[in-house]
Each structure stands twice: as C-alpha cells, then as structure tokens.
Amino acid sequence: MKRTGLQILVVFWLAGCVSQNAAITDGGSQVQVRQIQTREYDTLNKRDTLRSILATLQDLGFVIDNADYDFATITATKLQDYQIRMTVTVRERDSEMLAVRANARLNENLIDDPRAYQDFFAALDKAMFLTLHDVD
Amino acid sequence: MNFNVALRLPIISVVLLGLTACETVPGNAFQLSETALETRSIQTREYSSLDDTAILSASMAVLQDMGYVVDEVEPELGLLSASKRADATNKLEAFGTLSIDTMQCVFTLMLACTRRNYGEIDDVQDIRLTLISRPQVENRQNVAVRVTMQRVIWDKEGRLSEQETITDEQVYRSFFQKLSTAVFLEQARL
Q1: Residues on chain A touching B128 (C-beta within 8 angstroms)
Q2: What are the structural domains of chain B?
Q3: Domain A28-133 is in which class?
Q4: Could you give phi then psi for residue A70, rounded to 5 degrees?
Q5: Buried b (16+ CB within 10 A) or exposed e, B143-165
Q6: Residues B165, A79: C-beta atoms closer than 8 Å
Q7: Is B63 exposed, middle or buried (CB count within 10 Å of its CB: 0-12, 13-18, 19+)?
Q8: Spatial contact of B80 and B65, defined as CB atoms under 8 Å apart
Q9: Using CB atoms, which residue from B31, B76, B130 is nearest to A58?
C-alpha cells in the first residue's frame, strides 16, 4: 500500500519534469498573472521610468541583455547560484498613466510568486522616487 | 516501529525531491541588499566633461580596447552591454591536477588513467557587463556612469563551474581608471 503511494509520487514528480512541447505555450491564468506582474504609475514619463527600471535592475545585480526605448522593453539576467531572466515593459495607458509589467523566470521555471514581484516593484518605487527627486 | 521509520524515510525524501522540482524564488532575489548603496557607489563614477552620448562613445572605445564585443546599445537610454570569453585557468592548479592524474595513472599501473582532477578545474569564463550613462535631471552636464558585471565559468570538461555577479571593488576601480583616461582623450579630441 505504502509502496503504491510512493510509486504514485514518483510518477507525479517525473511528470512534472517532462514537458517539452507543452512547455512552449504553458502558463497560468492570464488575467491573474498579469495582475501580479503589473503596476501603474503616474509620476514619471516613459524615459525616466525606463531609466528607473534600469537603475533598479542594476541595484539588484542584473546585467541588461536588451533594451529598446521605442518599444519600452528591457530584458536582463541575474547570475547567482541561480539564474533569473526577466523582461520589463512599459506601456502608456493614457497620457498620464504608465503600466509597468515585469515577468521573470528562475532557471527553467516561471516565477509566479506574487512576493517576488512585490519586492521588485518596491525596489522600483524607491528608484522612481530617487529619479523624481534627483538624489541618485 | 523501526519498519515504519524505514518506510517513511524514502517517502519523505521523494516528497522533498518533488518540492524542489517546483523551485521557490530565493528570498532576497528581488530585494535590495543591505550593501546595495555601497555596491552602487563602487560601480558608479560621475563625469562632468562630456554629455551622456559622448560618454557612451568613450566607453565603447574602452571596451573595444579590452577586447569586448558589444551586444546591445540603446543611446536613448544611455545603455551599452558587452561581453567577452576569456581564459580562467589557474596555471598552478592545472599543473597540480595534471600531476595528480598522472601519478594516479602510474601508481595504478595504467589501470586508472583519467583526467578527472584536471577536468574539474576552471577553463574559460564568459564575462558580461552593462554600462549605463545617465545625465542628472537638474544638471545635464553631470553624467553618472554605472557598470555591473557578471560571469559564468566553465571547467575543462565544459561543465558549469560557477556563475556570479562580480563584486570585487578592484575590478571596478581598474575599469573606471581606463574609462577616465578615455573620457579625457575624448574631451581633448573635441
């Protein structure tokens, strides 16, 4: 009986590892994921927001892979004992409001822990405050 | 009782393995560390002789001097990312491990001839860096340049040996020495 339980666990665990094609389009509930990955700001313009994001990423030890001002997209990598890759995008909601969205992967997994994004946006809030008051 | 424990142990270890399969984010991965301010000052220098774009050009020249290849430039954001692959072998370590492998081979009468010890030492490193030149909002003549660096080290067998953010103050000091010279030259040219 116990052995069966053990076998089931092993099978489940292995199934978790084997994804391949499924991995190409998998992901969580779109609305929920977007919510935890997005914050709205009405303080800085697009350029200063992007610059604040760059400063935050550097503060957190990231090296920037790509950055594009026109599409307001930044991709960066952090190497510790782990590897985190993340993309941060800025979209203009209307003339006043900017939406900043970050999505990150830890090694081969999507980061869907809201706490990680809260930490990131907390660090970004500080950088934006510094940019706004030019005490960088 | 003992039987129970003997059964429980493998089950617990399998559950633990299953849990590690869905990784949790390292607690401090997105938090500013206590040394963030200090790190920032090690990685930053201010220049007032050139504007942010001219500093990017000077930086590009310095990176080329050091053999870097430029991966990404976005002048609108004052950004430059570059990388290079370099030797990471410690000659002494290489000699030592080769000697051990050779001795092992001799002492086992050629039965255990491997490069096991030599294979585990560092071989090459991929170094990547980002440089951002950022004019101050109030006085655009003051430009803050910040550099962050990281590297991945591979062993002789091509396996990942180490990946890290470079924090050694000396590395940044030496980089900025070269950049300061280049900024000076760029300014003289103008």
Answers
A1: 63, 77
A2: 43-88+122-189 (3.30.310.80)
A3: alpha beta
A4: -60, -45
A5: bbbbbbbbbbbbbbeeeebebeb
A6: yes
A7: buried
A8: no
A9: B130
Which token pair is A123?
């660090």
**Both structure tokens of A47:** 């350029």
Q: Is A26 left (phi over 0), alpha (psi -120 to 50) or beta?
A: beta
The answer to whether the beta carbons of residues B115 and B79 sit under 8 Å apart is no
pLDDT tens column, B88-131: 988 888 888 888 888 888 888 888 888 888 888 898 999 999 99
| Best residue of B9, B25, B142 to probe chain A, by most A CBs closer than 10 Å | B25
Collapse the DSSP code of B48 into the 3-class scheme (helix H, G, I; strand E, B; otherwise coil) and give the result. Answer: coil
Instruction: Sketch the domain layout of chain A as residue ranges.
Output: 28-133
Q: Which of A6-20, A53-67, B126-140 has the lowest mean pLDDT?
A: A6-20
Angle between helices B2-21 and A2-17 (to 10 degrees): 10
Query: Helix and strand tally (H, E) in chain B?
Result: 6, 6
Whether the per-residue pLDDT at A47 is higher than 60: the answer is yes
Provide CB contacts within 8 A for B28, sequence distance 6+.
Answer: none
Tens digit of pLDDT for each residue in B26-65? 878 899 988 999 999 999 999 998 889 999 999 999 999 9
Residue with the two structure tokens 């585990």 = B120
Indicate the pLDDT class of residue B1, thresholds 50, 70 and 90.
very low
> Greater confidence, B135 or A30?
B135
